[in-house]
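Q: Sequence in, structure out?
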Amino acid sequence: MERIESIQNKQVKEWKKLLTRKGRKKQDRYLIEGLHLVEEALKSSSEIETLIIREDKRDDYAALIERYATAAVIVTEEIAEALSDAVTDQGILTVIKNQESQDLIKGEKPVLLLDEVQDPGNLGTLIRTADAAGFEGVIIGKGSVDLYNPKALRSAQGSHFHLSILHDDLEKWISRFKDNGLPVYGTALDERAVSYRTIEPQEQFALIVGNEGNGVDPKILEQTTENLYIPIKGQAESLNVAIAASVLMFSLYV
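A: Exactly. Output:
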């Protein structure tokens, strides 16, 4: 089993680049941290490239090290700290090959589309809720935070391993869904929108939610089958995007 002791090691420098969106895109890989996420990754069909264990946690993760001996690397506390983005470092990380594929999203079950969702916590929560609601996948549009942002991954709690997720052009997918006879619902607060309660629950559709401050781009809203709003009885002006999407996902899917 390999052991790395220098923070200047070439491989360590490459791993550190995975903490940035640019680095992840260039290497076509991402880094996850913490035992729960690592276990979810190992249970999935993800391509695990390297299992990184902090030296003082070697005994704690002995079973994983034995099982994945060819991929396991022991590192010093200094290196583990340099790779960690978490407040509480658990001493275990994994490098995973990106496996996004357009072929995995067919619209056989509902699909969530995200337009310029910029908060990583919201993104992770949206993915986790789509998983819980039984959606087929999530398509992340331009201007949105990267799925592989460490905070987004922590918030998703491993749900990105359970459904198909793409970073892609939303308008292309809107056209594709509509051409296949699937309704595409936007979310809006203008006078043209209708209450989500007027829509019968169904098995196949696409749902678009948007930016935390500006909502869905008006250009995109012009292309939808219908735009929906959630009636608010109290004094709040609007709902957080993740909360609103949760209401709609569980209400619209049979």
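DSSP finds ten helices and twelve strands in the chain.
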